[in-house]
Every structure is written in structure tokens, then in C-alpha cells.
Amino acid sequence: MKPLKATTLVACCSFAGSVGYFASTQTRIEENSELIGVTKDSIQAVSFHEETANNTYFTFENPFSPRRELNRALGAENAAERYGRFLAIGYHSAQEHPLQNLESLSPEIWNYENYDLRGAFFSEWMRKDPEEFLPWAEAKYLALAKDKKLELFPTYHLAYLEPIALLELLPKIKVESFADTVRNDLLGTLLEKDAALLWKRRNEIASLNRIIEKASDRGLLPLALQFWRWSEWEDLSLPDRLYEYMAKHSLLNDAIHLVGYQRTLFAVHYAAFSPAAAANWVRAQPTLYDFIYEFDNRHTAYFRALLASQNFHEWSDASAWIREAISSDEDTLLAESVFAAIQLLPDSAVNIALIEDLNDYLYEIDNDSAIEKFYLSLDSNHPVLAEVEAYLLSNQERFGQVLTKRATRELPTPDRLLKAFALGNIDNWPDSYFESAKASFAQMSDDELLWSLAPNMLLTAAQFDSERIQNLVANADPVWIQTTLSNSGFLNNVSLESLELVSEMISTLPADQARSINENAKSVVIQTASIDSDHQKYIKIASRSEDINLIANSISLEDYQNNPELQAAIKAHPRKEEFYQGIVSSNNAKTYQDPDFQNAFKQLEKGRALLELPADDIVSNLQSLPKTERLDLAKATVIVSNDLDQHSDLMKLFELPIWSDDDKKELYDLGFKNYLNFNLHSGIDW
Amino acid sequence: MKRPYLLPLLLLGFVIGYGTGTLVEPTSKSSTASRPAITAFSTTPFAKEEKIESWRQRFLNLLEEPSTTLRNASYYAFAQNVPVKEMPYVIEAIYPEGWARFRGDLPLALSMEWLRKDSLSLAYTYERLATEHPDLHDNFRGVFFNLGLQNAPGAVAAIQNVADPDIRSLFSKPFINGIRNKHTSILFETKLALLSPREVFYKLTDPEREEALSAFWANPNYYLKEKINPDYTFWYELGKRYGLPCIDRIPTNHNICFTYLGVIASGASLSQEQAEKIEKNWQPRYEFSDFLSNEEATTVITSILDIPEIRDTLDHHVFANVWNKGITEALAYKLLSQPDLSPSLRKTVISHANACFPPDQFIALLADESSDTRATGLNSLLNSMPPDERIQMIESLPPSWVDQGLLHSNFNRFIYEKNLKGLDAVAAKFDEIEKLLPTSSRQVEILWEIAPHLYLQGIESLDSEKRESHLSRLANAASEEELTSILEMGTYEQQTNVIINMIQSKPKLAVEILKTEDLSDLATREAHKMGSQIAFSTDTSIAEDYFKSRAFDKPNDQIALLSYYLKEPNFVFEGQDTEKIRELSPQNDYIYRVASAINEDSENIESLHALREEQPDAFVRAITAALQFENILPLKRKATQLLRTSQLNKAERSKIHCALYGGTPL
User: Fold this and answer.
1) Which helix (H) or strand (E) holds B304?
2) Rounded to whole angstroms, how far apart are CA atoms A114 and A102?
3) CB burial class (10 A; 0-12, 13-18, 19+) of residue B225?
4) What span, in angstroms and rounded, lies between the C-alpha atoms of A578 and B356?
5) C-alpha dihedral, B80 to B81 to B84 to B87, nearest 10°
6) How far apart are CA A77 and CA B152, in angstroms?
7) Is B158:B121 a contact under the CB 8 Å cutoff?
């Protein structure tokens, strides 16, 4: 062991010794050696080096050998040292025989990560000898472009390290794509490095638009604005961020140079940052171009200030701005301001668009007291009053009191009354409103009524005075009758109670038309069966399959079993089987005790089996049945079908020549309603 | 074994060696100016401000170097010589000039040196600096991106030690971007060390995904709680890599069906419980086919067939591409021979199976199918054939195999391919060629160009109403020379309508013909349509040319002009052409004023009354036409007001009432 130990000691000692030696020479080399290739440019560098600190330059052995120094730099473990050395090596290698030195530095200089070496070498070469550099650079650029390795070309470094030399080179570049890259990189670097130089030489580099855009993209907004000012506020479309910046800092002297829609864009930002000041500013402008839809809920404070500004209501743009305030007000914080502004508007400034917007707005506001105050403060013939009143009437459970208050004060004008008629739902009106409406109604002449009542008002008016309305219709011109009663709006407000009235009113129409209106009226009434638990009363008016199915679908087995009157009503109906089928199809029980339901279930099962078949087979199967059974089975099939694919199979079935026109219509209607009904209730998004 | 004597010996050796080195070449030209300075820094307890001031002086000296390159190089040399304790002072001394963005090399050089030596003090100082100077944030981004490119030692630890989450993220994001650019192999572990799980799992690269899967598998509950949101591929690969245990182990989440797909694609056989669990969360997605190779798609189809709970989803249309990839001859045979295969599934198999069979064999297969399924199969077969084979096949179809839908789609295809032979072949198989006529204008053009005989033959058999619409389409597609023969196929009334419909495609020609027509017999609706079409024409001189030739005492001319005005949305604002037309005659000016009053957004009807006084007949005609053919809300509201005023007589009211509430004109 001993001799071995001694050897180890010697080895260790001599190793440490050599490390020490190396460390000392290292210091010494750096202290002693000078920068190589001293030229006019580097003389200053040397003196700087000497008078400040010896540790601010990487120094090289004499004579300078790019390859040796590169190897040394590549061997440095410390990345910072490597980078620094790369820069210095690149610089010095470009001083003399650059082409030859490039050879020595290759291939490492082309390794992607050695961009500092590349950048330093080429930028210095370009600066020192552009004549020699340019042809080489153009050829190299094209070659790299061809290999899709342009990221290795150091244009960014050229622009960053030697912008002036590059600017001198630029007009001599013949390769257009190369020149474009150079311009682009100059723009990018000079923006941050030397904006004054960029401005001075902008014509060689980029358009004003592009310069301002790029500066804004980089977040250099004061600079971007400075460029715009230097251009004497040229008419440009500025980047959005710049409008925002001007608005934030209230740069009105700049904003004054904006034209057209740009001015609107500024106003939008300004209103968000300085609401009150912006309101004044906007009032001082001629109309802002296309300002509709630009403002949103960031601008609440602004609108509050604008709507309250002096003599706002006399402004020709007032109603347009109120509409914009409404459309911006997602959180409905502006209700009181909007109401106050509308109230002050002269009647002539209230247009239909404003009334429509106000109507939608009312449904969004949950500030009841503001609405009440508004309602009570409007003159009795104010153009928006009818709209507001209609809203209150359709929410009478919230506004009954205030409606009563106004109704005891005055009768509604005919305009308001007609609006209320169109709403229907008269049973829910507060008593005093009803009375006052009735009085107002009585004051209208027959002729006035005849030409004022739209089709959808007729049945509501009849609830006031059915005899008068019936007389009115009976004595009207046949064209009037035809137009009014065949209008779909006529049935808007039909109810179970008014079905008879409808029958009487249409008695003078041709029989076919009368029948169809009657049926439609019933269907409209039956639509309510699904939300009315008292199903019984609808049963006897139902005569079409679609209606029967609709009622039956809303009856649960439990309802049926616990309600003998309901059972009796169905039993008495001529199409009771369809009722049973409708009830079974919407209940998912697998077996039924009741023989009526058992039969219905069997029939539906047949329909379901039919649906499993390809469309052609459904058709041939049905055709093979005796005539009397076809329609029944077809209906059962329709009832159990509920997705769209099946629906298209059914279309084939409906088109069969075996059906009469009536059968066909009945099947179509049943199919459509059933599909609609099923999908509405199952919540499928379609 | 301990060797306590080794260290002193090493030290001794070093000292001797160093001494020797110094002695051998003693001619040092060392700068005497700098040495005391460095010594002074390390020994004298300068006040903080003085230290900063002294470093600042040195920094300003550095800036005097005119060559940017050499200056940048000097930053690195300078940084190497700053003792770590002095770093905070240097960092402060170079503010703000040293931080300017184009001087990024200096902060980078200092950061690299500092990180190497003491990453914790860097973290502390940088966090303070970033908090106090938000203007440096961009610069920090640049520095950390570069540190990432180098994967600088110590950087991860430094970032982890930043307390403020916003500033940590300011440093970590660019650093990770740097790592992503140059060091993909350590990207995932770096992200995991620096980001929240949600960020780590967002947009994974392929190599990252491998590591992400292992990390997730080790602790799925934790990651799901952290609401990670990786792409579908991740969930699919999870199922494929870990198989059946996924079903039991991975909690339900909204992407779980991709994991289940992976499990199924791995060919694992499921227990009853597992099948039920899959069913509960099974939502077939279009993306399924993206992940599957052909073999996997086959496995998926076969496996799902054996899972009754989700078997029905196979004929869902989202599975179409899975079928396309997965169908094989064996699979198709196996399925089609199953007697209890549902008709829709059968159709699905047939519609994808043709690629696996030679045509003869496939056709033999189709013989037993229902006509519907057969047509689907035939169509897929035809779609896969080159035109000539397709034609042959269609020609050889037995009559019972001919299906309208099939012919229709092939007819369309031949139109797109401009294949006359093909079109003739289809036409020969089907008597009712009119049912195959195309509706898109491009198809109409082609069919008219390559097979006019078929087109004419089809039109011959159409009823009057449909014929008119086809004549219109043809007129739009045809050349001017062909127009006469096309028009001759319609009645006089139809001809006028066809020409009106042609205003958009051939405005000059259409207007030229219409100019001289007596339009008295034209329906009001058509007169209205004519005016609208002229308004939509992009050539503004057309309108002037047309209206110049008309006398405006005729009702239909008035209606046409009115609808022209109403359809021209800008006429109130920039009506140079409308202005010219307006000046053509006083009557014309009147119609213009009526149109303006109609469009006015107000309930005020004073202006309407004044206009009525002027020309009652023309007024009522215009109002009723606008009510019937345009949907102008203000006009509707104004019409209800008009009805109620006693200035209008009964006949006028009746007409307006009828136009407002009735569907058809009387």
C-alpha cells in the first residue's frame, strides 16, 4: 500500500501545482497582452481599456488567431465568458482578411446558438468593408433562403450593432427580399435604439403608418404619438392602443386632428377614462360618425354625465345618444338618467326606434321605483307613455298600485287603450284601470273603433262590450271582415271563454274558412292545456288528432286515475282511443291494468315496431293493412316517433296515395306538433 | 478512508506552482489604477450610496466605447469581475441606462454571472427591482428568455424563490419559452417546477405529453382538482397507455370519453361494471377518428359491437370516419351475417364497406339489401370510381336498382365534372329528368353549357310555375344570343318575369328590353320587384337609364320607382343618382317625397297627410304597395295612425286596412 500512497501524493501535488501555474499565467496573459489588429477605430478602445480597468475586455494572444481564440471561447464553462469572447472574436476577425477568417471560424459560426459570434463578425465586416461584404451577403442570404435557414442570417445584429452602416448599404442591395428584411429589422431595432435616427431616415425604412403601428405594438406609445405629431397629424388610421393612450392622458390637442370614425374611436376611449370631461367634449363635436354600437357598460358614468348635460334634450342627436346609452347599459345602472332625458325630449325627437329600444330596456330594469316614477311623471299624451303603460300592464302584479294611481287621475287616451287591447290578458288588469279604460272605450265612436282596432285587439275589446263589438263586425264592410278575421293576430287573445264569440263573429265568412278559423282558435286555446292542470275543460273542444294528442300528453296516469270526471269526459269523446294513446305515449309504464290503456299500448307497440323497419318497409306494411286500420296505425306510429331521422321516414309515409287530403293534413299536423312538442319538452337544442 | 493530510498538501502544491508561474514571467504590465480600486471595494466599508456611485462611474466609462460590439463584449468581461456581494449595487448603478432594451447584453451578462454564484440573492434583488420599476418588465422578459435559451444554471431555483406570483410569472413565462426553443427534453420538468398544473398541462408537445401522462397517472385526483385542461390527444393516450385500470382509477371528467376510446382501442375486454361506467359517460365525438390508426379503428368498432350499452352509437354520424378507417372485409362479413343487426347499423356498414371488396363482390352483397340501403351502398361504390367506370356501372344498373336519390347525386357530380357522357347515361336511366335539374347558378351554367338538350328536355316537362323559375336561372346563365330561344319557352307573362329576374345578371340588356315594355298588365308585385332589382344593381347608371325612358303617370312605373327608392338605403344621404332621377319629372319628385316620408323614423303623419292631399290615388297606391311588399316598421305604425284619421275617405282606409292586415292585395 505504501508505495502506491506515495505515488498518489506526488501526483496530487504536481497536479495542484500545475493548476496553480495555469491560474497565475492566466492572470498574467490577460494583464499583458494587448488588443490585436489595432486600427483607427480600436485605438480608442485600447486607451479606454488601459485607463479604466483591465477586466472590461477579453484579450487575445498575439498574433491573433481566430481559430485558437474560438476554441478557447468554446471551451469556457462560463456562458457569460463565452458570449463576451464571441463578440470580441467576431469583431477582431472582421478587421483583416474577413473571408479567410470566416473560413477558420466555420462551421461553429453557423451554429444557431453562436449568434453573438455571427452578429459581431458580420456587422463589423459590413462596417469596415461594405464593398466586399455586400456581394457575399446577398449570395449568402439567397442560399440560406433556399435552404429555409434564414434564421441564421444576422440582419437583426446588423441593424442593432451598426444601423448607420446598414442604412448606407440598404440602397445598394439588389435582392429585394433581403432589402425587405433589412428594412424590417431596422424598423424593429431603431424604434428602441434610436428613434430620432428612424424618423430622420424613415423614408428609407417604412411608411409612417407602419412605424406608428409597430411602435404601438411594442407598447412604445409616447413614441408612436411623437411620430404622429412629427408628421403634423397626418390622416392615418391609428392603432387602437394609441387612441386609448391619448384618451387616458386627455391629449385633446392631438385628438382634434382625428377625422371621421377615428374621432368616434377616441370618444369611446375618452368616455371610459374621463366620463365627465368626455361628455363635454362630445357635446362640443359635430355629429360623431357612426357612434352607434361602440359604447358599452364601461361607459355608464359617461352617459350619466352626457344625459344630464345642460340643454341635452335640445340637441339634434339627443335621441340617438339615449338609444346608445340604453344599448350600452348591460347592468341597467342608467335607468334614471335615461328616463329623465326622455322625459325632457320634445315629442318630435321621440322616434320609433327610441320607443322600441325603450320597450326592450324596460324588461331588463329591475329598479321598479324608477319605472314607477317615470310612468307617473309622463304627460298623458307623451309618445312613450303607451309603451310604458303596456309594460306595466303585462307586469301588473308588480305595478298594480301605480297603474291604479294614474287611472284614478285620468282616463287612458285611445292610443294607450289600443296598446292595452293588443296585450290582452284583461282579467288581470287592476280594477280601477279596467274601469277607466272602459270609460275611455265608451267615448270612442264606432267609426273610430272600426278603423282603430287591429285584428289582435278585437277579442279583448269584446270583453269590454261584446254586443258593441259584435254589432261593429256585423255591420262592417265584407272586405274589412275578411281582412280582420283571417288575420292570424285575430286569435292572439282567444280564450276558452271567447271561443263562442269567435264562432259568432266569423259566421258570415265562407263555411270552409269559418271552420278552419274555428279549429285554429281551439288549437290556440288547447296550447294552454299543458300549463293548466284542469285538463277536463279542454277535452270537449278538441276534435283534431294534434289537439287530442297535446291534451293527452299533458295528462299523467295519476291525474287520470284520481279523477273520475276526467275519465268520464274522455270516455264521452268520439275519439277516446286517441286520448288513451296520447296518455300512454307520454307515460313510460311497461304494463297497464286498464283495458283501454292496454289496447292503446298495443297499438303504440305496433307503431314502434313499424318504425324499426326501413322507410320502404314501413310504407308497404301500412299499405297491406285493411283501409280502416291504416290511419289509426299511422297515427300511432307518428305519436311514438320523435327524432328527426324517423321524421323523414314518416314524410314518405305521409306522401302515400292511400290518404285523402284530410287524412294527409291530419297526419302532417299531428307529426309536426308531436315532434315540436316532444322536443320542446325534452329540451333538445335544435 | 480519511486522508486528513491530503488537503494541506494540495494547498502547498498550488502555492508553489503559483509562485513559480509568477516568478518565471514577472514582467507584468498590470494596470496599477485598477488594483487598489478592487481591493478598496472588498475591504473598506463604503456607504451604500458611495458604492453605487463608484460602480456607476465604471458603468458610464463602459458606455464610452464607440463600437457597440466591443461594448457588448466588455459587458461580459465586466460582469465576470463583479464580486457577488457587489451585484445589488451594480444592478442599481446601471439603472436606468443599462436597462434600456437595446442594451440587453449588460443585464444578461450580470444575471448569468450572478445566477451562477448566488441565485437566491438575485431572486431577492430582482423581485424588488421588478416591483419598484414596472418599466423594466419588458427587459426582464428579454433577460429571462435568454437565460432560458441557455438553460442557465440556477435560474429555476431563482424563479422558485420569487414570492410575488405575478413577478414569478413575469420571469417564468419567458424563461420557459427560452427552454422550449432550445431544450425540449427538459421542458416538462421545468414547467412542472415553475408553473401551476393547469398551465403545465396546457398545449403539450409530443415529448412533453409522454412525461405529462406519467405525472398525471401518479396522481390523477390532484391534477383534476387543479382543473388541468390538456388536449384530447392527452386523454386518448392516457386510455391507450394505461388501459383498463383507467376506467376504475380516473375520475369522471368531461373528456373522459376520449380516455375510454383509448382503453377500447387498446383492445382490452371490459367487465360488466366497466361497460356500464363507460356507458354513463359515453359521448361519441367527431375527433375520435383523428387518434385512431386503421387497425385501432377496427378494434374500436369490433369492441363496441360487443358492448351492448354503447353499441347503438356506432351508427351515429360522428362515427363515419372511424368506420372509414376501420372497416375491413372480415368485419363487414361478420356484421352483415348477423341476423339481429339493426337496419340502421346495417346501412352504416354497407355505406362504408365498398373499399374492402372488389366491385363485383360488393354488388353481390347489395343484392339482398333493402332498396334504401342498397342505394346507399351503390352511391359509396360509385363515389369511389373514376368517371368512365361510373358511367358503365350506371348504364348496367337493373331497373329495380335505379333510385332517384342515387341518380340525382351522380347527375350533380357529372355536372361538376362536365361529363356529357355521364349526364346522358343518367338521363337514359330516368324518365323524369326535370327532377334532376340543378338549382345552384354554377351548376345551371355548366349544364347549360355542356348538355343544353337535357336542360331543355327537363324544362319541357315542368309545370308552369317551376318552369318560370328554371327559365330565370337559365336566362342568367345563358349568353345574349341564346336568350331569345330561352324566352320563347315561356308565356308572355313569364317572359317579363324572367327578364326582371335577369336585371342582376345582365342589367344593361334587361333594362334595355324593359324600357320599351308596356307594363300596365304587370302584377304590382313584379313591378315592385323590378324597382328593387334595379336598386341592387351595382351599376348606378342603369337606374338613370331605365327611369329616364318611363312616363311616371302609369301606376306600375310609380311602384317600380318607389321600390327603387325604398331599397336604395342611402338615397337620403348620398343621392347623386337618385337626385338626377328625382329631377326627371314632378311626378317622379313626388314619389321620391313619398318614399322619404315612408322611411322617416317618426310617428308623425303630418307629412303623409300633405302628400295625400297632393295626389290621393298615387299616395294610397304607394302606401299600400310598401305595406304589402316591404317590411318597414315605422310605416306600419304610421299606417295605423292614418287609418284612424278622418281625413281619409272610407275607400282609402279600406285599402290601407287591407294592405296592413290582409295577406293579399285585393
Assistant:
1) helix B294-305
2) 13
3) exposed
4) 49
5) -90
6) 12
7) no
pLDDT bin (cut points 50, 70, 90) of residue B333 is: confident
The 10s digit of each residue's pLDDT in A206-247 is 999 999 999 999 889 999 999 999 999 999 889 999 999 999
Tell me which residue has cell 284530410: A662
Alpha-carbon gap, residue B199 to B194, rounded angstroms: 10
Residue in A40, A41, A105 with CA at minimum distance from that of residue A71: A105
How far are the Cα atoms of A581, A634, A638, B558 from residue A625, in angstroms, in the given order? 20, 11, 17, 61
Q: Which of residues 164-223 of B touch A (CB under 8 A)?
A: 182
Is residue B210 exposed (0-12), middle (13-18) or buried (19+ Cβ within 10 Å)?
A: middle
If pLDDT is split at 50, 70 and 90, which confidence band does A686 have? very low
Q: How many residues in chain A? A: 686
Inter-residue contact B289 to B325 (CB < 8 Å)? yes
Q: Exposed e or buried b for every residue in B168-180, given b needs 16+ CB within 10 A? A: bbbbbbbbbebbb
Q: Quick one: cell of A323? A: 338609444
- Spatial CA neighbour of B300 closest among B324, B276, B317, B277: B324
Contact indicator for A580, A596 with CB cutoff of 8 Å: yes
Q: Take residue A622 and report the three cell numbers written for it.
A: 301500412
Q: How far apart are CA A264 and CA A262, in angstroms?
A: 5
Q: Which three cell numbers stand for residue B131?
A: 416591483
What's the whole-number mean pLDDT along residues B531-556? 80
Measured at the alpha carbon of residue B22, what is the angle toward residues B21 and B27, in degrees to the nearest 5? 125
Residues of B in contact with A613 (CB under 8 A): 343
Per the document, the length of chain B is 666
Using CA coordinates, name the residue in chain A closest to B28: A32
**A24 with B17: Cβ contact below 8 A:** yes
The residue among A17, A23, A19 whose CA lies nearest residue B12 is A17
Residues of A in contact with B69 (CB under 8 A): 87-88, 90-91, 119-120, 123-124, 161
Q: What is the 3-state secondary structure (H, E, C) of A487-503?
A: CHHHHCCCCCCCHHHHH
CA pair distance B363, B78, nearest whole angstrom:
84
Model confidence, pTM: 0.67
Which residues of chain B from 243 to 272 reach within 8 Å of chain A, CB to CB? none
The burial class, CB within 10 Å (0-12 / 13-18 / 19+), for A158 is buried
Question: How far is A597 from A601, CA to CA, in rounded Å?
Answer: 6
Half-sphere CA count of B355, side-chain side, radius 13 A: 13
Tell me how far apart the 2 most distant CA atoms of chain A are, in Å.
139
**Shortest CA distance to B410 belongs to which of B438, B434, B431, B432?**
B438
- Contact list in B for residue A88 (CB cut-off 8 A) is 69-70, 73
- Report how far residue B638's alpha carbon sits from residue B632's, in angstroms, rounded to the nearest whole number: 10
Angle (CA) B323-B327-B332 rounded to 5° is 120
10 Å Cβ neighbour count for B33?
Answer: 12
What span, in angstroms and rounded, lies between the C-alpha atoms of B108 and B104?
Answer: 6
Q: CA-based angle B120:B122:B126, to the nearest 5?
A: 125
